[in-house]
Design a protein that fits this description.
alpha/beta, 5-stranded mixed sheet
Length: about 500
């Protein structure tokens, strides 16, 4: 291919505004063809006409190249930003990484790296707002109830965040309408379509009074900070939130309510502020379970009973009283794979769901690369409460000890029996010990299938948090690739 003149350019037409796979393929072609960043023009199909030539395909003889995982992770998120220069920014960074600046992503003061980080941060913030401020309204259709919500994202996050709502509202049929894109879930499959209008969504439904009453009940006038509240809940979302109708009244009443609170005598602190509810004491828990547990006649009922029992126990470990709530497993009964981790983390403790924090997000990415659908797997933890040390405003994770694992082992054994997976995957040392009753070395047992106390086959591998603690980016990339290979092998053996 002849060299391009300095002013000659190549236009690359992408099929969508946030199609990272298409951008990645096109960018590799440009690098292979030695197209410099200033020679490339990026166009999204349907937005601007392509005035220049199509991007050339990489020559067959071109040697492959690789870039740090840190760049790919940031780029996959930043490409969802609405900044029209995002494609050029990403390609400029890619060009520099390939042409001698291998450690560019570690240059925290580089303007392009700073800009990339800012774009990714804005996209994550927008996704958080979508998770927090989508409110479904129920409508009656000919084939039954359907739930519809309106949301106005700042960036192109609709398709990327659809799976979050599938996991959270899998049993509902719902649609999320935005100005650019619509997302619909019919209980089995996702569909994407063109955007809509605010008028396409009903203004309210029978749940509105409950939302308003709930918000009013949790509003603390003593902690009112209007600036921080508006930063966290911008006014653009208020018209979509039923509780927003209460904000003006609650803010106006705050000074009077605070004065009344100060006049009242302070109450003595509760020594167990988050202790679980106590019902009748269940039978004494067994400390070891060498015998297999027969699958229950009604697995769903057995899991519900297990949940009630754990909520009612008066002999929980002391750290359980400080946790927000127990975190139970989630996923389908009879799952092909059941993943068992160590214990809930900070985000899991707050959300009440397993594997939603940093390690969970890393696990999601690894599962996707291994070809495993998280929705078809059952995820849980060996220990059901978050064990931590409070340090200022942070809660520092503490690993469970042998006594903690022993206490929760009967609950885990009954959970495994109820779910009845084809294969159990232990994530880390605590899970492997809880399942087998033996302190087996994870790195030596990794990739092998051993027997649980109940007789179920257990595939051993590391916990994804282990990868987050690796200091070297290359070690993280190699470790992640090996972890994906483990998950793929477990899936093949199940």
């Amino acid at each position: 291919m002849p060299a391009l003149a300095p002013r000659q350019g190549v236009a690359v037409t992408l099929p969508g505004p946030a199609d990272f796979t298409a951008w990645r393929q096109a960018a590799r072609g440009l690098v292979a063809a030695d197209i410099r960043p200033e020679q490339a023009e990026w166009v999204v199909a349907g937005e601007l006409p392509g005035l220049l030539a199509e991007a050339p395909a990489p020559p067959p003889s071109t040697a492959p190249f690789s870039v740090p995982r840190a760049f790919l992770d940031q780029a996959e998120i930043a490409i969802r930003h609405s900044d029209p220069e995002r494609f050029a920014l990403l390609y400029g960074l890619l060009w520099r990484l390939v042409h001698g600046e291998r450690h560019l992503m570690q240059a925290a003061t580089d303007p392009a790296v700073i800009r990339l980080s800012a774009l990714a941060k804005a996209v994550r913030r927008d996704a958080h707002k979508m998770h927090a401020f989508v409110r479904f309204r129920e409508v009656q259709a000919e084939d039954g109830p359907r739930h519809i919500a309106w949301f106005e994202p700042d960036h192109h996050i609709e398709e990327a965040e659809a799976d979050f709502f599938v996991r959270r509202f899998a049993a509902l049929r719902w649609s999320i309408v935005t100005p650019r894109r619509s997302v619909a879930w019919d209980g089995t499959a996702l569909e994407f379509g063109p955007g809509g209008r605010r008028a396409d969504v009903p203004p309210d439904d029978a749940m509105e009074p409950l939302w308003r009453a709930y918000y009013a009940s949790i509003f603390n006038p003593a902690r009112l900070k209007p600036g921080a509240m508006r930063a966290e809940m911008p006014r653009k979302y208020w018209r979509n939130l039923p509780e927003a109708a209460e904000i003006s009244r609650l803010m106006a009443e705050a000074p009077r309510r605070v004065a009344e609170m100060m006049e009242r005598a302070a109450a003595a602190p509760n020594p167990r502020p988050q202790s679980p509810r106590h019902l009748s004491a269940p039978p004494q828990i067994a400390r070891d379970m060498p015998a297999p547990i027969a699958p229950p006649a009604d697995p769903a009922l057995a899991l519900a009973a297990l949940r009630d029992e754990l909520l009612s126990r008066p002999d929980l470990p002391d750290f359980a009283a400080r946790a927000t709530q127990p975190v139970f497993g989630e996923g389908p009964l009879g799952a092909r794979l059941m993943f068992v981790g160590e214990q809930p983390g900070d985000e899991e403790d707050i959300a009440g769901r397993p594997f939603v924090g940093p390690a969970g997000r890393l696990l999601d990415r690894a599962l996707a690369q291994a070809g495993v659908d998280r929705r078809e797997a059952y995820l849980t933890n060996a220990v059901k409460h978050f064990k931590f040390t409070p340090t200022g405003k942070r809660r520092i994770h503490q690993s469970p000890d042998a006594g903690d694992i022993t206490y929760y082992r009967p609950f885990l054994a009954r959970e495994v029996a109820a779910v009845a997976p084809r294969l159990v995957v232990s994530l880390g040392a605590s899970a492997l010990t809880a399942l087998t009753g033996k302190k087996l070395p994870v790195l030596k047992t990794r990739g092998q299938v051993v027997s649980a106390l109940g007789g179920q086959p257990v595939f051993a591998t590391i916990h994804p948090s282990y990868l987050l603690r690796l200091p070297d980016p290359q070690a993280q990339a190699d470790g992640f690739a090996a972890f994906v290979a483990d998950l793929r092998a477990a899936h093949d053996q199940a």
